[in-house]
Write a structure and sequence with these properties.
The complex is a heterodimer of chains A (82) and B (223). By secondary structure, chain A is mainly alpha-helical. Chain A contains two helices and no strands. Helix content of chain B is 68%, strand content 4%. Chain B is built from seven helices and two strands; from the N terminus they run ββααααααα. Chain B has a two-stranded antiparallel ribbon. The chains are: A mainly alpha (82), B mainly alpha (223).
């Protein structure tokens, strides 16, 4: 098992991306559904709502991107694999 | 897939200084933007020509958007935020030109842009409120929250950097994988999507920078 650390890193990267994408996906869906609801009720406030929605989505998306960064660190810049 | 997205992409050496591909692309974009602005504003007149009218429309749209976010006079902030947006649009869309790679797909460019936003938010905050009043912002609503406020200041700059880098770089990676898997026509919708993602990320970066600067200078009603 001389490659066990590499194999563990790859598994870790896969787990990080796949499970890290679940939470942001759900919450982005909820945020967009709520925004659609609000725009359907008040179409005149669509401009403000969509700007706030974009900022909020960016904030939520950050979590998924942290997972992506962790996966990239594991794959390309792993400090434990020489 | 043989090169790491975190490693620098060195094109050539200029004396002892290695010049990487993002630097070359960035300077090319800066040259194009400067040339267009110089051409458009070389002979300004009230009865504007085509290029001057286009530039005026762009600047006024940016100014209106920033005014809606910051809710005060946008002119001190429009040069920074507008340049940021236009540069980011060009940088993210430079993947459309064959042979060019977006400089924002490497970690250095987003890191520098996020550092600029971080420093300029403090600069505008101190200039508009004074040093003591600005420092007192961190002890609100309670002195106990001081570490959390400082921490949020750091993490939001970091996430600003990582968001831009992660989105652009990961999309480049996706296109590389699709090209590797299936040759000719399949990558085209992904490339169209990359145009959308590039513009949206430029917009989000600018809006977040405007929100940070707006929070730093404070609203007019709160004073």
């Amino acid at each position: 098992m001389e490659y066990s650390l590499e194999i563990l890193s790859i598994i870790g990267a896969v787990v990080a991306v796949s499970f890290g994408a679940i939470g942001p996906a759900f919450s982005e869906g909820r945020a967009i559904a709520a925004a659609m609801d609000a725009i359907a009720r008040q179409p005149e406030s669509a401009g403000v709502l969509s700007r706030t929605l974009f900022v909020g989505l960016a904030m939520i998306e950050t979590m998924a991107i942290y997972c992506l960064v962790i996966a990239l660190l594991l794959l390309y810049a792993n400090p434990f694999v020489t | 897939m043989e090169t790491s997205p975190l490693a620098p992409d060195i094109l050539f050496q200029l004396g002892p200084v290695p010049i990487s591909r993002p630097v070359v692309t960035t300077w090319a974009i800066m040259a194009v933007l400067t040339a267009v602005s110089w051409l458009g504003l070389r002979r300004t007149s009230v009865h504007a020509g085509t290029l001057q009218t286009v530039l005026e429309i762009v600047v006024e749209t940016l100014e209106k958007q920033i005014c809606e976010i910051i809710r005060r006079d946008p002119w001190p902030y429009t040069p920074l935020l507008g340049t940021l947006f236009i540069f980011l649009v060009f940088a993210n869309l430079s993947a459309v030109v064959p042979g060019m790679k977006p400089p924002t797909g490497h970690i250095e460019t987003p890191a520098v842009l996020a550092a600029i936003v971080f420093l300029s938010a403090h600069y505008f905050g101190v200039r508009s409120r004074g040093l003591l009043e600005y420092a007192r912002r961190y002890t609100k609503p309670n002195i106990l929250l001081l570490p959390l406020n400082v921490l949020s200041e750091i993490t939001r700059t970091f996430s600003l950097m990582v968001r831009l880098f992660g989105n652009i770089m990961s999309h480049e990676l996706v296109i590389a994988i699709v090209v590797f898997l299936a040759g000719l026509l399949l990558p085209v919708p992904f490339m169209l999507l990359s145009i959308l993602i590039g513009i949206i990320q430029a917009y989000i970066f600018t809006v977040l920078a405007a929100v940070f600067i707006g929070a730093a200078v404070g609203s007019v009603e709160a004073e």
